[in-house]
Amino acid sequence: MRNGTVTSFILLGLTDDPQLQVLIFIFLFLTYMLSVTGNLTIITLTFVDSHLKTPMYFFLKNFSFLEISFTSACIPRYLYNIATGNKVITYNACVIQVFFTDLCGVTEFYLLAAMSYDRYVAICKPLHYMTVMSSRACRILIICCWMAGFCVIIPPLSLGLNLEFCDSNVLDHFACDAFPIMKISCSDTWIIEQAVIICAVLTLNMTLTCVVLSYGSIIRTIFRFSSVQQRKKAFSTCSSHMIVVSITYGTCFFIYMNPTSKEEVTINKVVSLLISSISPTLNPFIYTLRNNQVKKVFRNSMKRLALLSNK
Fold first, then answer.
1. What average pLDDT values come out for the chain (311 residues) when binned by 10 residues?
2. 9: how many CB neighbours lie within 10 A of its CB?
3. If 0-12 CB within 10 Å is exposed, 13-18 middle and 19+ buried, where does residue 149 land?
4. What is the DSSP code string of 66-105?
């Protein structure tokens, strides 16, 4: 069995227990719907309200789009597998799933770094904010984030397309992922493993360095403020982003920086599930519930809709 003749893979999922599968299906369906609804709400509000047409909300809109794309690349397929009992995924569909999940996942890290730079300019260089973070500059940063994502995933993905499968096409995972695929391959995967680890380390370390440097400067600037009210306001504008950064980097460091990650399949499946379902669900609530401006715009939008419906 070589990848020239392999037409499909079998995804084992998380469990074979029917009762647990029902609970997992309900949990994933609810979190997926909440994630899509929450992120679509943020995207809609930034489009329709003039108060949210600032660089910060421009980045947040793009981040919400990435979250929807990332979770939609894997969760609906797993829900379909549980609902129908059909665990088969075609080779081409598996490659496409790996491409989109990795592209969206990597691009998110660069976007988080861009968002931290936006907060740095807003707090440390407020008089130059609108000049530095112009519409053109924001668009260029977004394009650079996507291009960086492409450049990072293409080398290991290209190498992975040459893998051969001799004994098995069963993936011990709920979605197509690099390490489970390499585990069942009969090819020498050392080069691909190193490429994946190098790309992951470079992405995580480069973007985290940008985040740490930005927030280091932000914290120093905040402590120079004479007014306590100014400090609280500055911290509140950064707190949501800092929480999202902590969740995202923490889970990904666990998977990709762990030397035994290839063997710890069960733990990685659970962590991957949390990344794919919980994080995209929490992010809209983190950004909206901790942001008075977004809450005000949301309430005003609901009032306008209520008035229109009454007419």
1. 68 88 93 92 84 86 93 93 92 93 93 92 89 93 95 92 85 88 87 88 90 90 82 76 80 61 62 79 73 69 68 60
2. 22
3. buried
4. HHHHHHHTTHHHHHHHHHH---EEEHHHHHHHHHHHHHHH
Task: Please work out, in degrees rounded to the nearest 5, the angle formed at the alpha carbon of residue 242 by the alpha carbons of 226 and 232.
Answer: 25
User: What is the pLDDT, as a whole number, of residue 167?
Assistant: 76
Amino acid 256: pLDDT: 58
Neighbours of 99 (CB within 10 A): 16
277 to each of 32, 52, 73, 142, 212, how far by Cα in Å? 6, 27, 11, 24, 26
Distance CA 183, CA 165 (A): 10
- Helix axis angle, 18-48 relative to 279-289, nearest 10°? 40
DSSP per-residue codes, 144-206 = HHHHHHHHHHHHHHHHHTT---SS--EESSSS--HHHHHHH--S--HHHHHHHHHHHHHHHHH
Query: Within 13 Å and on the Cβ side, how many CA atoms surround 221?
Result: 19
Between CA 56 and CA 276 the distance in angstroms is: 24
Count of other CB atoms within 10 angstroms of residue 218: 22
222-231: pLDDT as tens digits: 888 877 777 8
Strands 8-11 and 88-90: antiparallel
Residue with tokens 């059909």: 86
- Per the listing, tokens 């440390």 go with 124
**Exposure string (b/e) for 101-129, b if CB count within 10 Å is 16 or more?**
bbbbbbbbbbbbbbbbbbbbbbbbeeeeb
Map tokens 């899509």 to a residue: 36
The pLDDT, as a whole number, for residue 1 is 41
**Residue 302 burial by CB count (10 A; 0-12/13-18/19+): exposed, middle or buried?**
exposed
Q: What type of residue is 14?
A: L
Please report the DSSP string for 8-37 in residue order.
EEEE--S---HHHHHHHHHHHHHHHHHHHH
